[in-house]
């Protein structure tokens, strides 16, 4: 996806968000933290080519999700939603967004770094072999597969689009669906602080 296309998509999504395009949570609908028996530590390669270990992030709240840089909808929308969440929270030094590619054939470390630079987030992009990524995805109950071919000669990826909220001790505490608003996500993060 070119920088111009990303910029135009961001402008459109920010305009939509500013016009009340996102549904508001029903009154009294307050998400609660949980503990899940899956998830856990892993090691992949970050956008600088260095090893990234989830266990090294203890003390931080991690918002992890699986996506890819050519994603036309769910991934940029999720990154914008997380940007809005962090704006609501103000201080973000204890937060880290972890974006794991489901398309390592196209998402080089450089491509991940350039893509994430389009968003005002403390974020790291991770890649690895398809086998390494599949192991992490399976560990988190996420899935992905190659989808339809596009008219431009590329292809789409079908993938889990929820965000995995991981606490400061590395425990998976919430599966954030795409319907959650930035306010709901901020409330969940606030419960971990």
Molecular structure report:
With 193 residues, the chain is an alpha+beta fold. It has a single domain, classed as Glutaredoxin (3-Layer(aba) Sandwich). Helix content is 32%, strand content 24%. The protein has helices at residues 3-18, 74-89, 109-116, 130-139, 182-192; strands at residues 43-46, 51-53, 61-67, 95-101, 123-127, 144-149, 155-159, 163-166, 172-176. A seven-stranded mixed β-sheet has the order 2-1-5-4-3-8-9. A two-stranded antiparallel sheet has the order 6-7. Helix 2 links the parallel strand 3 and strand 4 (95-101). Helix 2 crosses helix 5 (182-192). It is globular and about 45 Å long. The N and C termini lie far apart (36 Å). Residues 1-27 have low confidence and may be disordered.
**What would you report as the Rg, rounded to the nearest angstrom?**
16 Å
In the CATH hierarchy, the architecture is 3-Layer(aba) Sandwich
Strands of the largest sheet, in order across it? 2-1-5-4-3-8-9
The total domain count is 1
Averaged pLDDT: 88
What would you give as the CATH superfamily?
Answer: Glutaredoxin
Total beta-strand segments: 9
Runs in which pLDDT lies below 50 for 5 or more consecutive residues are 1-27
Through-space gap between termini: 36 Å
β-sheet strand percentage: 15-25%
The global form is: globular
By DSSP (H or I, 4+ residues per run), the number of helices equals: 5
> Structural class per helix/strand content?
alpha+beta
Assign the CATH topology.
Glutaredoxin
